[in-house]
Design brief:
Length: about 270
C-alpha cells in the first residue's frame, strides 16, 4: 500500500500538466437532510461494480424436470471501492471532516415532537454522482455495509503538527449501494424506459442537447431513442437540417407549380 502516496502525487501532477482528462471524483449527496448537503471526494483506485439480480421463485412439480418459475423483479446495486486522500498537510482537516460527515450521513433524520422523544422523519437516502455524471449516470438509493479503513492500518503514516490532533492522510472506503429507480425500468415495445437522460443505463453513452435535451427533461421516462422517435430527430444533426431544407424546398415548389399534386391525393 506504500505506493498509494506516489499514486496520488502522480494524480495531481498529471492534472496540473493536463495529462489527465478529468478529476476522478465521487459526489455523495444526503437527500434525507435539510438543504441536502454534498461531499465530493477526490479519489484514486476507484472501482464501481454493477450487480443485477433478477429474482425468480421456483416450484417443482411431480414428473416435471424443469421448475415452474415465477418472475418477481430485478434488483440493482453498485459496489463502490475507492481511496480518498489529503494531497498536502493543509487539507488533512478537510479530509477528516469529510470522512466524519460521510459516517454521519448514514444516520436518519428526526423531527421534534412537542417535548416528546424525537420522531423518525427520513431514513438515510443518497444521490451518488461519479465524475460529474460523465461516466455513470447519477443514481439514487441507500447505502449498506459501509467500511472505512484508515491508511495507518496499512502502514501509511499519519499527519499533523507536533502536539496537534493526529490525522489520517488516506482512507479506503467501501460500500454497497442499492439503486432505487425514479422510473420503473423495462421495455415498452422497442423502447427501454428507465435510462438516464444522457441515453445510458449503467454507463453514460452520449451527451444530448437542443430539442432532445429539452424533450428528455420534459418526458423523463423516455429514453433518448424514444425522444428522437417522438420528435423525428435523427442521429446526425446536419442531416436533420438538410432534410428540413429539402422539405421546405419541396413545399415551395408544390405551391408554385400548378401541375404538382397535393400530398395525399392520387391521379386516376
Amino acid at each position: 500500500m506504500a505506493n498509494i502516496v506516489t499514486d496520488f502525487q502522480s494524480y495531481y501532477n498529471k492534472l496540473e500538466r493536463r495529462e489527465r482528462g478529468v478529476r476522478t471524483t465521487v459526489g455523495i449527496q444526503a437527500l434525507h437532510i435539510p438543504k441536502q448537503p454534498t461531499i465530493v471526494f477526490d479519489t484514486i483506485h476507484l472501482v464501481a461494480q454493477h450487480k443485477l439480480a433478477p429474482k425468480w421463485s421456483e416450484e417443482q412439480a411431480y414428473g416435471k424436470m424443469d421448475p415452474m418459475a415465477t418472475y418477481s423483479h430485478t434488483g440493482r446495486s453498485i459496489k463502490f471501492d475507492f481511496t480518498v486522500f489529503a494531497d498536502n498537510d493543509g487539507s488533512l482537516r478537510k479530509l477528516t471532516n469529510d470522512v466524519n460527515m460521510l459516517a454521519e450521513f448514514n444516520y436518519p433524520s428526526y423531527v421534534a415532537a412537542g417535548g416528546r422523544s424525537p420522531t423518525l422523519l427520513a431514513p438515510p437516502f443518497f444521490r451518488i454522482n461519479l465524475l460529474d455524471g460523465k461516466y455513470i449516470p447519477p443514481a439514487e438509493g441507500y447505502i449498506t455495509d459501509i467500511s472505512i479503513s484508515p491508511g495507518s492500518s496499512k502502514d501509511i503514516t499519519t499527519g499533523g503538527e507536533p502536539g496537534d490532533v493526529v490525522r489520517e492522510r488516506i482512507f479506503q472506503i467501501e460500500f454497497n449501494f442499492i439503486v432505487m429507480h425514479v422510473v420503473n425500468p423495462g421495455w415498452h415495445g422497442e423502447i427501454f424506459e428507465g435510462a438516464d437522460l444522457n441515453g445510458g443505463f449503467l454507463y453514460v453513452t452520449e451527451e444530448i442537447s437542443g430539442v432532445e435535451g429539452v424533450a428528455a427533461k420534459l418526458f423523463g421516462s423516455k429514453t433518448v431513442q424514444g425522444v428522437k422517435k417522438l420528435f423525428n430527430v435523427g442521429d446526425d444533426p446536419n442531416k436533420n437540417i438538410q432534410n428540413a431544407k429539402k422539405d421546405k424546398t419541396r413545399k415551395k415548389r408544390s405551391s408554385t407549380d400548378p401541375t404538382s399534386i397535393p400530398s395525399g391525393l392520387e391521379t386516376r
